[in-house]
Amino acid sequence: MIHPHTDPAVYAAQLADKKTRLSELLAPFEAPEPQVFDSPGEHYRLRAEFRLWREGEARHYAMFEQGDNRKPILLTDFPIASRRINELMPQLQAAWTDPALGFKLFQVEFLSTLSGDALITLCYHRPLDAAWHAAAETLAAALGVSIVGRSRGKRTVIGRDFVNEELIVAGRTFRYRQPEGAFTQPNGVVCQKMLGWAYDVLGERDDDLLELYCGNGNFTLPLSTRVRKVLATEVSKTSVNAALSNLADNAIDNVTLVRLSAEELTQALNGVRPFRRLAGIDLASYDFGTVFVDPPRAGMDPDTCELTRRFERILYISCNPETLAANIAQLHDTHRITRCALFDQFPWTHHMESGVLLERR
């Protein structure tokens, strides 16, 4: 739901409600009181996606209430989005009056970063021709952005198909390549707080880390500096390529990255079947002390959850507190929660990110 206000008192009350909800979900497991990491009330969202809605000869940015795609909410700005996105919105709207750019344009996506980089994706119901390419190059130069054009399975890139982000953890700046169309954390300020919390909770260790669902290496980069070495897995080829670039760009050389799903790695570690992508990796050489997981909303499947039970410490970041609680219920007989946190990635909504450290009893 889109909120027309950002009243600090209302925000504080909503955040308190989220803390209560998380505490109640984790109460059966005797969790400590969660640390709470708040969000700015405005200009926190680094991604935004809009449909275009025609009224007469004019077209507007539009969003819809969930479940209702007939009544558009027309926008001239979007206060929860980054200042860079709000700066670009009217400039792009002026540009799409050019038929070379505006003809059969139906959707616009913005991707920005805390470091000021930005990329715009333009989606069309038509092939992109030479006139589009020339107009898009002129626009990209004028706005100081990269542009990606999409049309029926084809993609045309003006500039780069990724943005560059910089996040500071424990005084060190980490550089991230964030590809267009791939998952990235939407709230950069809170993401930085999440990374700092995970870095602190993991602590300085002399053993190894197993990371499941590593994405573009968001957590991998800072956590790799706290352990001897890391074995990280991710199934998305786009995210794997971004993670490999990020590791190289940050001169991190103690991470081995394997393109496997968490379920496939579980099968490999259980000896169910071998995987060619693990050839040359000596799993026996790892002394895993901690497993780090950041699963999708569905949480860990039962077999992967059972795999994590083998580890002394389970560091778990969750975007769905209900599936987090369900996974902890499976692990509660062998592990207890020693640290807990709430990260308000999505202010003005009921959604929340949370984190727990589970340690063997």
UniProtKB/TrEMBL annotation:
<feature type="binding site">
    <location>
        <position position="294"/>
    </location>
    <ligand>
        <name>S-adenosyl-L-methionine</name>
    </ligand>
</feature>
<dbReference type="InterPro" id="IPR030391">
    <property type="entry name" value="MeTrfase_TrmA_CS"/>
</dbReference>
<feature type="binding site">
    <location>
        <position position="185"/>
    </location>
    <ligand>
        <name>S-adenosyl-L-methionine</name>
    </ligand>
</feature>
<dbReference type="GO" id="GO:0030697">
    <property type="term" value="F:tRNA (uracil(54)-C5)-methyltransferase activity, S-adenosyl methionine-dependent"/>
</dbReference>
<dbReference type="InterPro" id="IPR029063">
    <property type="entry name" value="SAM-dependent_MTases_sf"/>
</dbReference>
<comment type="similarity">
    <text>Belongs to the class I-like SAM-binding methyltransferase superfamily. RNA M5U methyltransferase family. TrmA subfamily.</text>
</comment>
<keyword id="KW-0808">Transferase</keyword>
<dbReference type="Pfam" id="PF05958">
    <property type="entry name" value="tRNA_U5-meth_tr"/>
</dbReference>
<feature type="binding site">
    <location>
        <position position="218"/>
    </location>
    <ligand>
        <name>S-adenosyl-L-methionine</name>
    </ligand>
</feature>
<comment type="function">
    <text>Dual-specificity methyltransferase that catalyzes the formation of 5-methyluridine at position 54 (m5U54) in all tRNAs, and that of position 341 (m5U341) in tmRNA (transfer-mRNA).</text>
</comment>
<feature type="active site" description="Proton acceptor">
    <location>
        <position position="353"/>
    </location>
</feature>
<dbReference type="InterPro" id="IPR030390">
    <property type="entry name" value="MeTrfase_TrmA_AS"/>
</dbReference>
<keyword id="KW-0949">S-adenosyl-L-methionine</keyword>
<dbReference type="InterPro" id="IPR010280">
    <property type="entry name" value="U5_MeTrfase_fam"/>
</dbReference>
<dbReference type="InterPro" id="IPR011869">
    <property type="entry name" value="TrmA_MeTrfase"/>
</dbReference>
<keyword id="KW-0489">Methyltransferase</keyword>
<feature type="active site" description="Nucleophile">
    <location>
        <position position="319"/>
    </location>
</feature>
<protein>
    <recommendedName>
        <fullName>tRNA/tmRNA (uracil-C(5))-methyltransferase</fullName>
        <ecNumber>2.1.1.35</ecNumber>
    </recommendedName>
</protein>
<keyword id="KW-0819">tRNA processing</keyword>
<feature type="active site">
    <location>
        <position position="319"/>
    </location>
</feature>
<dbReference type="GO" id="GO:0032259">
    <property type="term" value="P:methylation"/>
</dbReference>
<feature type="binding site">
    <location>
        <position position="234"/>
    </location>
    <ligand>
        <name>S-adenosyl-L-methionine</name>
    </ligand>
</feature>
<feature type="binding site">
    <location>
        <position position="213"/>
    </location>
    <ligand>
        <name>S-adenosyl-L-methionine</name>
    </ligand>
</feature>
